[in-house]
Design a protein that fits this description.
The complex is a heterodimer. By secondary structure, chain A is of the alpha/beta class. Chain A contains 18 helices and eleven strands. Chain B has seven helices and four strands; from the N terminus they run H-H-H-H-E-H-H-E-E-E-H. Helix content of chain B is 44%, strand content 12%. The chains are: A alpha/beta, B alpha+beta. The structure holds flavin mononucleotide, iron/sulfur cluster and FE2/S2 (inorganic) cluster.
Amino acid sequence: MAQEMHIVLKNRDKINPLDINDYLAAGGYQSLVKARGMAQEEVIEEVKNSGLRGRGGAGFNTGLKWSFSYNIKSDEKYVICNADEGEPGTYKDRIIFESDPHIVLEGMAICGHAIGSKKGYIYCRGEYPQVVDLLKKAISQAKEKGVLGDFDIEVRMGAGAYVCGEESALIESILGQRGEPRFKPPFPPVSGLNWKPSIVNNVETFANIPAIIHKGAQWFTGIGAKSYPGTKLLSLTGDVKNRVCIEVPTDTTIRDVIFHFGGGMRNNGQFKAVQIGGTSGGFIPESLLDTPIDFDSMRKIGATLGTGAVFVMDQSRDIVDVVTRISKFFEHESCGKCNPCREGVFRCHEIMKKINKGLATEEDLEKIQLLCLVMEQTCLCGCGQAAPSPILTTLKHFQEEYEQKLLPA
Amino acid sequence: MLDYKGIMTDYASRKEGIIEAYHAVQKELNYLPKEAIKAAAEAFKIPEKEAYGVATFYSYFSVQPRGKYIIRICESAPCHIAGADEVVEALEQELGIKMGDTTPDLKFTLEFAQCVGQCQETPVITVNGKPYGGVTKDMVPRILAEYK
Ligand SMILES: Cc1cc2nc3c(=O)[nH]c(=O)nc-3n(C[C@H](O)[C@H](O)[C@H](O)COP(=O)(O)O)c2cc1C
Ligand code: SF4
Ligand code: FES
């Protein structure tokens, strides 16, 4: 039977996160020492060959991203940890920090060495003031011990804006501006913070680095799915018995996640749907539960792995009502910079409300589908591009629920 | 009155300090008065409309006065299906105000929030950032009593 595997969470409940001595005793910061003994290219090659892909949603090869920044000569470069964690249903980055903050700091410092950066930032969402305090403490302990050498890390606190998780918006926000995404290219690894090369990686991505340096790329490629190796943290929510954060190899199936690790349905409910990857993820019906959770397998079924949020719904749930609520989320969180999203999310919510109230016709369904397709193609950033996904995937897999709510023809 | 100029100057050594400076003001006042935004514009050498633009972009900042305790109720999908609406109703009834409003004694403000990352136990509310999970309508009076 499937088992959890702990790389990122190896110290969970084993060490005191507020005491750096515990982390050091568990072998902490040894990988940083090892990395600093290696040439920069060597570190990047190792990370590249491990096949580690970003855990923040986009799934880009981490070592390859680092090589872009490494290849540019610049007086300053930045390492930025994305701890905005705004996707509803996601709480895994918080769990990483609460369990073992130093594993992330170590990963960032290794990246700093690899690309030639002396300055790191952690952008932590405003919803986690306790985590901000914890991180500040961990950083000051690391400085006291001198383990970070001349690599400096600062924490910045967000102020409640989902779009600030998008990497260029995040950079704007660190700069003290409105968190609106930039036009791309240039991408941050080439031109990011202060228009200097900047690596933005997710918390979980950085937390994988120390083990990869310690045990080598080959060890890592042997774990989980071939094209998306390693483990993935998943945060379970909704009508599942165990609402917990787990770390499993990436070839684990959705079914095992829900019925084995999640303990099955709560209150003896019957499974109806699961939305994976956060609120911008697709809905998945029973018939697709044997899909492995890795990035590419999820893509193939028209869904996403995203942040690894697993939101389970039982038969008593009203899909149209849930999607209406989700479209409200996007209306609230659109930054308003580009027209298709600013107008699109507003209209999506409007039409969804109409459908949910039983006042819509077949024509409204056609309109919302067309609108969704336009948004996917034309929105400036991933927020507007992904906003239609819950609507389109539920229209596909749960169409009868929409039909039932239409006005009689 | 808070020394806005002092606070802003403290943070203005770093260009990017304006959000931190706003957090510092709100820690004391729970909102950003006009004078604070004006002081920020001066200290950070940006037009006032830009300082205002930053203040209004982020849902944590408010340019309207708010109560001493800000209660935020998560309305994202996982909390929604777990019964967030009932909690909203109970809070509105208990405090005698509607969502978005502040009690006349300036003690409590009710706000909607999107996911606050505590969805292992839904529905979730936060009081000045402190999370309470698995909230039912029966629990509301007890939680409020902690702050009365
Ligand atoms: C609207 C939006 C929100 C995002 N939120 C987050 C987030 O909270 N955390 C995160 O790591 N990445 C988030 N991302 C993805 C980032 O833009 C970026 O791809 C990621 O931080 C890169 O790190 P990785 O390669 O380690 O995944 C978001 C993207 C979009 C479009
Ligand atoms: S897609 Fe939406 S969130 Fe992204 S830039 Fe456009 S308006 Fe802003
Ligand atoms: S969905 Fe409400 S706290 Fe996450």
